[in-house]
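Support request from a user on the community tier.

User writes: "When I paste my structure tokens into the form, the page sometimes reloads and wipes my input. The last time it worked, I copied everything first. Here is what I submitted, just in case something in the input itself triggers the reload:"
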């Protein structure tokens, strides 16, 4: 791996965490220092910082175990993996009924990250694939997830004047985006009408976990000529899929 931008402190922290994970409630500062070759003063600083961040917990005998932070991160990781699996299990019905493509994605800062995709048998393929990132304001799933944020949070994600116009229909300013988000909050879903790519429309709704957090979104995309007579059924199918996934999301 390219080490030009390597951060040695992170590598040292990982070495320490790995040892603690392998031998919980066994290793003290001196043991960790000896095993890693990190001097005692640096190890003290590392452990103190990681304690403050809840990465590790120092026990009564001055041994260490992993902290609650990794429980939260682990749950988030496996919830994400579970969500993809659940989507794949439940989406087949919607694809069969509507005959169009359904997708799953989550919001990461100002970008939409695609997690899964189920295509209907068709000659035209969408540009998006799992792992792909697109600017959230130009997509239905992105906008529905942005609508869960405060206006100030949304504006902070994009520098005014830098909105990229993918098509003539793409949002061009923060003011225009906020106006759309206000409508999305009222109606409970978002629409992309040829905003990311010409010739396609999309409708999206959020997936909500049991804590009320909007953790992802599902969408249905179709060629624009299908939109007038399929949009109502698409909204119905997306609602069924989103609510079904929300209902079974783990805590």
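"...and here is what came back when it finally went through:"
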């Amino acid at each position: 791996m390219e080490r030009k931008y390597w951060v040695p402190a992170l590598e040292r922290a990982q070495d320490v965490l790995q040892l603690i994970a392998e031998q919980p409630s066994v290793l003290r500062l001196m043991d960790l220092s000896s095993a890693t070759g990190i001097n005692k003063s640096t190890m003290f600083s590392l452990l103190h910082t990681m304690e403050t961040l809840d990465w590790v917990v120092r026990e009564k005998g001055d041994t260490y175990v992993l902290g609650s932070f990794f429980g939260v991160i682990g749950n988030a990781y496996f919830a994400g993996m579970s969500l993809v699996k659940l989507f794949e299990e439940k989406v087949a019905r919607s694809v069969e009924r509507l005959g169009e493509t359904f997708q799953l994605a989550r919001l990461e800062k100002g970008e939409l990250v695609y997690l899964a995709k189920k295509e209907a048998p068709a000659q035209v393929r969408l540009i998006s694939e799992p792992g792909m990132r697109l600017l959230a304001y130009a997509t239905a799933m992105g906008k529905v997830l942005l609508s869960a944020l405060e206006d100030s949070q949304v504006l902070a994600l994009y520098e005014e004047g830098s909105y990229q116009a993918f098509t003539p229909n793409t949002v061009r300013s923060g003011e225009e985006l906020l106006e759309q988000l206000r409508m999305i909050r009222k109606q409970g879903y978002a629409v992309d009408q040829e905003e990311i790519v010409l010739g396609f429309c999309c409708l999206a709704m959020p997936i909500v976990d049991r804590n009320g957090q909007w953790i992802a979104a599902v969408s249905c995309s179709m060629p624009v000529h299908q939109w007038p007579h399929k949009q109502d059924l698409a909204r119905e199918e997306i609602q069924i899929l989103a609510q079904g996934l929300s209902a079974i999301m783990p805590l």
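Agent notes: The reload is a front-end session timeout and is unrelated to the input. The two ends are 36 Å apart (CA to CA). The beta strands are 56-58, 64-66, 101-108, 111-118, 133-135, 190-193, 200-208, 214-223. Escalated to web team.
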